[in-house]
Automatic annotation (TrEMBL):
Ranges that cross the membrane: 24-48, 72-93, 114-133, 187-205
Lineage: Bacteria, Pseudomonadati, Bacteroidota, Flavobacteriia, Flavobacteriales
Protein's UniProt name: Uncharacterized protein
Keywords of the record: Membrane, Transmembrane, Transmembrane helix
């Protein structure tokens, strides 16, 4: 009986080691929560700066002009600030979690995850630039949601399963946003703000909080 119990413990340990070596498990749920908060703050800044309905702003921007170009630069700047803040915060929380677990932040599984995440993101970013160059600003929010969702779905096999479901949610939101043209800011806020907070909190309480108890 004792021998069987020892074998089961050994198998569990081996399985845990294999999972750690093939999956990036240091990703912190808190990084998702803060990324969502940053996204909501960024969306609020954009909304109040535009000071008109987003659909109306899309129509006005399509005509070009110096003022519209300034607004476009402002939108891109806010989006970049949200991205940088999210990446920095994510790295800090992930590093702290990895240190507690005795794991490396940048290992083979992390590299695979980042590669699968950023290939769709770079392709989607390039397509968004092309859309903006043609005055199709209303397609930027749907495209960012869709390509971000594809990146999450692809990279989830190297990390937590929740990323897969978050990716599917982002893709669906992007498609809905494309249908409701001109409502992109609303769906962008839901996708990058609310959904990040929801899944980040879910991952935190599922994988991190119990370990502290």
């Amino acid at each position: 009986m004792e021998e069987n119990k020892k074998h089961l413990e050994d198998l569990t340990h081996i399985r845990s080691m294999m999972e750690r070596s093939s999956r990036f498990l240091s990703l912190s749920g808190l990084s998702g929560v803060f990324a969502g908060i940053y996204a909501i703050i960024g969306a609020a800044i954009v909304y109040f700066d535009i000071n008109v309905g987003y659909a109306e702003y899309i129509r006005n921007t399509a005509g070009g002009g110096e003022d519209q170009n300034k607004k476009l630069v402002f939108l891109v700047s806010v989006a970049l600030l949200v991205l940088v803040a999210s990446l920095v915060t994510g790295y800090l929380f992930t590093s702290r979690k990895a240190k507690k677990q005795g794991l490396k932040v940048w290992d083979k599984s992390a590299r695979h995850m980042m590669l699968n995440l950023f290939v769709p993101l770079i392709a989607g970013g390039a397509l968004c630039v092309i859309m903006m160059a043609h005055g199709l600003l209303g397609m930027v929010a749907p495209l960012t949601l869709i390509f971000y969702g594809l990146g999450l779905y692809s990279s989830s096999k190297y990390s937590f399963i929740e990323l897969k479901y978050l990716g599917i949610s982002e893709i669906l939101l992007g498609l809905i946003s494309a249908y409701f043209y001109g409502k992109g800011l609303l769906f962008w806020t839901i996708g990058f703000g609310v959904m990040h907070i929801f899944y980040g909190a879910l991952m935190y309480f599922k994988y991190e909080k119990p370990a502290k108890g």
